[in-house]
Known about the structure:
By secondary structure, the chain is α+β, with helices and mostly antiparallel strands. Among the domains are: 91-176 and 299-323, no CATH class; 192-287, Roll (Chitinase A, domain 3), CATH 3.10.50.40. It is 47% helix and 12% strand. It has helices at 56-67, 80-111, 118-132, 136-150, 154-171, 179-190, 204-216, 222-230, 254-262, 298-321, and strands at 21-24, 27-30, 69-73, 76-79, 193-201, 245-246, 272-274, 277-287. The strands form 2 sheets. Strands 1-2-3-4 form a 4-stranded antiparallel beta sheet. The protein is globular.
Amino acid sequence: MQPRPRCDHTSPRDGARRLAAVRCGSIVLAAGALAACASGGAARAPREADAPPANPAQAQQRSSARSDLVAIVDGAAIEWSALRAPIVEAAGSTVLRDAVLDARLARRLAADGRSVTTDMVDRERELLLDTLSADRVRALDLLAELRARQGLGPSRFEALVRRNAGLRALVERSVEIDDAGVASIYDMRHGPKRVARVAVLASLSEAERFRADLAAGGSTGGFARLAVERSLDESAARGGLLSPIARRDPSYPESLRAAIYATKVGAVSEPVLDGARFFVVEVLEEREGDGTDPAAARAECERYLRLSRERLLMDALARELSSLDGVTVFDRAFDAGRP
C-alpha cells in the first residue's frame, strides 16, 4: 500500500539548446526554413521561390507553411497539422486544465492584491528540492527522474513551479499551527516506527485463504512469497514490504497504521477492510525513536507542519480552479482526451 504523495517537486536540469536544424541519419528536424547546402563554386542563380513576396499576404502564407513543418523523414515532410490531433488526444486535457488553472489563479492573485515574484519562484524550487532529499546532488537526480517520468520539460516545469508559488501565496494565511499537529510531525520525524509487510486482497475469502495458507506453511518464503503471488498492491513486487511507518504518519491510511500498531511484532493481523478491499499485515520489527527532545525540535516540526498543511490547501485550491465547469471548449479535438 503506497503512501499518498507528499509535496512533490523538482528543480530544473536544462539540456543544451537545440540547433535550428538537427540532422540524424535520414531524419531532419526543422525549426525553420530548410536550405540546401551549396557545394562551392559559382553562386546559384536565384529561383522564383527565392524572390521576395509580392505582398504581405504572400509573406504570411509562406511563413505559415514553414512554421507548420516539424520534420523531414526520407525526403517526406511531417507537418504539425498531422501531429496535432494525436498530441492533443495524448496530453491535451492535462494541458488545458493547467491553462484554465493558470488563468483563474492569475485573476485570484490580482483580486487578492498579490503577484508572484522571482524570489517566490526561487523559494518554491528550493522547497521542492528539500522535499526530495536533504542531499543536494541526490535531490537533483531525483528531480531529473521525476521530470522525465512526468514529461515536465522546461516550459511545463517552470509553469508548475510558478503555479505552486501562486497557490502557496493564496493559502499561507489560512494555515494554523497547533500542538496536536506539531506532536504528529514530531512522531513522524523522531518517534518510533514499525516495519511491516502488507498484502491487499480483493475479498474477505481471499484474505482468509491468504492467512490460512501462510499458517499452513505451504509457501516457501512465507508472507513475502504469498504477497508477490497474490497481493494487488504496488508493494507486491517487494513482497509487500513497506517503508518504516510512524503511528501518526498521515501519508498512510489510518486503518493500515492502526492494524500495524495493534499487531504484535512477529505476528500477522486479521483481515482488515479498507474501502472495497481487504488487507493483511505482518509486523516485522519496531524501531525506537531517535531521542530528540520535543522542545528542541519544535521549530523544525512547526515548519514541516506548515508545509504539510499548505500543500493540502494548495491541492484543494488547484482542484477548484482547474475545474472545467464554466469552461466552453470550442475545439472538439480536446474531447478525445477527456474522461
